[in-house]
Amino acid sequence: MTTDPVKLTAQLVRCASVTPTEGGALVLLERLLSDAGFVCTRVDRAEVCNLFARWGEGANGRTFGFNGHTDVVPVGDINAWTVDPFGAEIKDGFLYGRGSTDMKSGVAAFAAAAIDFVADTPPDGSIVLAITGDEEGPAQNGTVALLDWMNKHGERMDACLVGEPTCPDTMGEMMKIGRRGSMTAYFTARGVQGHSAYPHRAKNPLPAMAALISEVAAHELDQGTDHFDASTIAVTTIDTGNPANNVIPAECKATVNIRFNDAHHSDDISEWLRTVANRIAAKMQIGFDLAVSVSGESFVTPPGELSALIAKSVEAETGIKPEMSTSGGTSDARFVKDHCPVVEFGLVGRTMHQVDERVAVDQVHQLKSIYTRILTDYFA
């Protein structure tokens, strides 16, 4: 009896696992995997629930790992949905629901593939499933907690596939061999409040902030690298919170988001931002504070055995040779890359996070077939 990945996707979608609520999704997977002979361990930390599942002994042969998440983003305006966001309704060849694309279908596909694979052709090695409930949130106690636990208990993966949606429009067209780094800079310019009719008695922080943001936004970090497009700088907000037209404010805030490639480290970019801020502060006699939050450093898994294995399996099942890309935002691969080589491949992600999120039923079956072929060829 084979494991139906669409049925499992529907069961997972019906679990209202909005970050950080577990919603029953990991309980369902733990029961299913345990029944299939996987040794399961809950690796919960803080308010986050995580699941580690292993089939086989780690000391025997190689270990292939899958990583994914069962938490989902909020539904937003529920009145804008044409279906129950957690109803897993199937119509016109699509399964609807929050998380159907991102990424309960991916988890269902690799869980179903792993369960059937070890039953049909037990490998000389091990399969690990590392599933978190904290990818869509702060991501501090999810995959990070799983990897911390693995390191503490001597658990390892020799290679890992993250099942995030990777294809923009067509199944099989893209895999991710790396990701850009992501960081956010929070600037605060501090002056002296005063009457706008007497500007000499105040210190206006707005011109200084305008000069800073103009220079930062116009700066070209690079022109791209071998595997990455050019890094980008985006100003996302400038705020004073000043409702009066005759008051010079004492403070102005601005936020800048930077997506950077492997030509940079966040420390280098942070130092550049501080240098610009300090120079403008000295010139215009305005104080600047800078706080930096780093979501992840850029990384790339150089094309090699793992990427070739996945590309070959994808092409065999779809007829399409996937592009090796580093585009998009961050994923938990940014944590896995410190543990073992990691590549991402999953479904078409066109509707993820949207109202009426949905996944093509035939693509879920296809994804399971791809994952099964990857396991077969890896352990051959």
In short:
The mean pLDDT is 96.
Describe the protein in words:
The protein is an alpha+beta fold. It has two domains: 5-179 and 298-378, Zn peptidases (Aminopeptidase, 3-Layer(aba) Sandwich), CATH 3.40.630.10; 181-296, Alpha-Beta Plaits. 32% of the residues lie in helices and 24% in strands. The protein contains nine helices and 19 strands. The protein has helices at 5-13, 25-35, 100-120, 143-152, 205-218, 266-284, 305-318, 333-336, 361-378; strands at 39-42, 50-55, 62-69, 90-91, 94-96, 125-132, 159-162, 174-176, 178-179, 181-190, 194-195, 232-239, 247-248, 251-260, 287-296, 299-300, 323-325, 342-344, 358-360. Helix 1 crosses helix 3, helix 3 packs across helix 9 and helix 5 (205-218) packs antiparallel against helix 6 (266-284). The protein is elongated. The mean pLDDT is 96.
